From TrEMBL:
Protein name: Ribosome-recycling factor
Gene Ontology CC terms, in alphabetical order: mitochondrion
Record lineage: Eukaryota, Rhodophyta, Florideophyceae, Rhodymeniophycidae, Gracilariales
Superkingdom of origin: Eukaryota
GO molecular function: ribosomal large subunit binding
InterPro entries, A to Z: Ribosome_recyc_fac, Ribosome_recyc_fac_dom, RRF_sf
Length: 220
């Protein structure tokens, strides 16, 4: 599922306390552009929480060989810790095999060791010309259950992050109680809550999609 896009709203200026005109309703954060605080930053933060969840899910192996499962592997090379992508290129050979082209043959051993210790249940096999073949085994029922638990934890973390953004937004809006009308405060709080609900719903949907993919695994 693609990330939630920024909602499009009609611009509605904020009424300050001396104004008696009745403002139109809106569910927009962007519709409060004349508000003396930056509310759009909170929407950006909610979107970031969803983006992080989707990135983490992309690294959670469902089945088959995908280079993304090695994104977090760190290699000890040249006296420092570095990302695998800085010392090698990962490609798909077939549905259950990755092949790693190590740039410097002197670091093949370090790359092999890093993958074995990454907790991914992967065992590289050395080939010629600085290459490593990495067979990707079928998932077991235990592995599938663990992935579902991980997916749930990742989704809950995203929801917590989103609600924290909501709380910060609400706190900042309340600081303007002496500058703008109560109706405008309530209107913007309603917009913040609506946006929060939207992203929580999107997070839940992304989690459900991931769990469905995990449950569809052909386990051994």
């Amino acid at each position: 599922m693609p990330p939630a896009s920024r909602l499009q709203y009609t611009y509605i200026p904020v009424r300050f306390k001396k104004s008696k005109a009745k403002a139109k309703s809106s569910s927009s954060l962007e519709s409060f552009g004349s508000f003396p605080i930056n509310l759009s930053k909170y929407e950006d933060s909610m979107k970031k929480a969803l983006d992080v969840l989707q990135t983490n899910y992309s690294k959670l192996r469902v089945d088959g060989a995908t280079p993304a499962i090695l994104d977090d592997v760190s290699v000890s090379a040249y006296g420092t810790e570095t990302s695998l992508k800085n010392v090698a290129q990962v490609a798909v050979r077939d549905g259950r095999t990755l092949v790693i082209h190590v740039f410097d043959e002197s670091t093949v051993g370090a790359v092999e060791k890093a993958i074995r210790k990454a907790g991914l249940n992967l065992n590289p096999v050395r080939e010629a010309d600085g290459k490593l073949k990495v067979p990707v085994p079928r998932s077991s029922k235990t592995t599938r259950d663990t992935m579902k638990e991980t997916a749930a934890k990742e989704a809950e973390s995203a929801k917590i992050a989103t609600r924290l953004v909501r709380r910060k937004a609400m706190e900042e809006v309340k600081t303007l109680k002496d500058e703008v009308s109560k109706d405008d405060i309530k209107r913007i709080e309603k917009g913040v809550q609506a946006l929060t609900d939207r992203y929580i719903k999107d997070i839940t949907q992304v989690q459900q999609n991931k769990v469905h993919a995990i449950e569809s695994l052909d386990v051994k």
